[in-house]
Amino acid sequence: MPLWLKDPLAILAENAERGVVIDGTKIVELVAKGQEPSSPIDETFEAGRHVVLPGLVNTHHHFYQTLTRAHPQAINKELFAWLQTLYPVWARLSPGDLAIATRLALTELLMSGVTTTSDHHYVFPSGLDEAVDIQVAEARRAGLRMTVTRGSMNLSTKDGGLPPDSVVQDEDTILADCERAITRHHERGEGAMIQIALAPCSPFSVTKGLMRATAELAQAQDCRLHTHLAETQDEDAYCREVFGMSPLDYLEDTGWLTARSWLAHGIHFSDGDIERLGRHGVGVCHCPTSNMLLASGRCRTCELEAAGVAVGLGVDGSASNDSSNLMEGVRHALLANRLTYGTKVTHLDALRWATQGSARCLGRDDIGVIAAGKQADLALFTLEELRFSGAGDPLAALVLCGAHRADRVMVAGRWRVSEGLPVGVDLERLRAEHGAAASRLIMLD
User: Fold this and answer.
1) What highest taxon heads this organism's lineage (predicted)?
2) C-beta of residue 209 within 8 angstroms of C-beta of residue 171
3) What is the pLDDT of residue 339?
4) How far is residue 360's CA from residue 227's CA, in Å, rounded to a whole number?
């Protein structure tokens, strides 16, 4: 039944002043100023109160970390010390913990305007072997598109890595489950709701052999690759000491310098590194909030884009953010990048990173923009809170005045948020169940 989102207050699309027409799961028409829809309309949604964006796309997260936000022993620490503090806590994650953490993160993201997300789950303590299946079930329940990355670690403290023995797996177990997850869950093609990517955690938690074998499996199965890289100077020093090469040389040596790959953080790259990333089509997920919180450094977004690198946005883990709100991350991206690049970085750049750029990181061209033929994934915001009073440019106001909660969110043509609330979710119950799970972890710590 064709639906006309009619006469929005503003919309992030050209020649769509009178809105968009949706039929099924797709946008079928943009309605320009002074025009009417070209085909009969069955339903009209009056959008005069709403600023309409493409659904936001979150390209890096760790959902399980919602259970350890603002952990008293982890605050005010840089990455390595922060990880060493929290790994023993995360080692006690149960299947129920991961399910409720994923449910809460997906709900937070959805309420902030996210319609597609990825998650990087790499902690596999005993009993959590079916983590991918748990996350897929929760994503289907919530109605978001999701790239579930089958993370991995096989280099523990006894081998010179950072994670404890209790959260790592051996290479054969990892690769077998990666192949199983792809076979069972990976959807290919336009409109996919669930996709699987392969995601060894980082140079200091996986062996070079696992990195190479994962790249080979991804090529054979035609899926994407994801990992943390060039996040801190400590990581750079580690790679040079252990592998005798820079992080990017390590990436190339293991077969990851490919258009299948997108990297989280990508802060400490040289000019030559950036040129190589662009030449090979590697994407970078900019994580401004966690980069600032962990004092990791500044991503060179403008140089990366100039070199042809797809730059997306991610909230990163909710123990290093400590939020799952990508609209908030858009504002942080603008402000953090102004410190480096001045006013040449605009609100439109930050919004592009969170939509079209993020979609490119995930290897998708069917989402991230408002255009005929694209998926009907939309985030609608109002400007009725006090923070927006007096705002002249509605699109700029979303970013500059700090929008953080969508009024309406549509995924694949279906409303998933209505009047600011996720459809079919009992927020009070979710908060209580999640808080109880977090309290158990803290009490055991």
Assistant:
1) Bacteria
2) yes
3) 97
4) 16
